[in-house]
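quick one before i forget lol
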Amino acid sequence: MRAPALLLTLALLGPGVALAQSAGEVERCFQNPAACASGGGGAAPAPVHTPAPPVATRQAPAPDYATVLNSSEADRKKIQESLRTLDKYNGPIDGNLQSEATVKAIADWQKGRGTAAVGKLTPPEATQLNAEAARAPIRRIEPPAQAAAPAPTAQPSNADQLKALQARLAERRKAAEPKANAAAQALIADLKAYVAADGKGVAGDQFAAFAKWYADNKTAGRSFGAITPAIDDYGDAKAGAATTAEVKFETKQGTSTYNQCLMFAWIEGRPRKNAQTFSCDDVAAAEKWKTDQTLKSAWR
């Protein structure tokens, strides 16, 4: 009779207790009444909450800049052309996306779009850049205005130029003739004096080669006749006024007459300086002397 009475007592408890207690708890109370809450309405023990394991946070992948930087040269050049079309770049189209000018241009374009101005492009950005450039209107560059070209002037013919050159040379020689003739006549006077003195005088002292030539002719039994000069060149040199003159000597041996020619070159002075004598056939030696003296011709 005790068990039914206990069940009846539990059944009469409030609905909250009846709902809170499961059949297992009723059985437990039946087996061990002392373990149940006294007063018929004890609260059930609070449930133990086990914390849920933390959810791993998934990080966003790093931007892919390498694909564009390592793309083909044609693709890299196209990016530079697109930047130029959008007035962001005015450097060379060389495919170098890491040059200072190209990096700055890319950063300016990114800044204008409100994205991070890193100066490098991801593949989607490269596609967007090229598409934006393709949509840009084509601007017509007008050539700068140029003044009307002057009417071409008639060029003088070669014959006219030659005549003009000859006229200038004649005018220059005319101005130099008095000094050149005076220098040549002074030389002729010294040469005649040397011949008249039978190999003595300043001509032989100043022109050693002439003195030897004269001695050789005397040894050969030749006598001397007319001596006539012809000026070869005249002008200013580094050491003074320079003269070169061809002098023709008439020599005789028996009934035979010989015409011989010597080239005399000297710098005017008292005595003459840098005096040299050459055969008239030795043109190269005479020209070298002029070069060595830096002669600026007023005769040719």
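fyi The first helix runs from residue 2 to 11.
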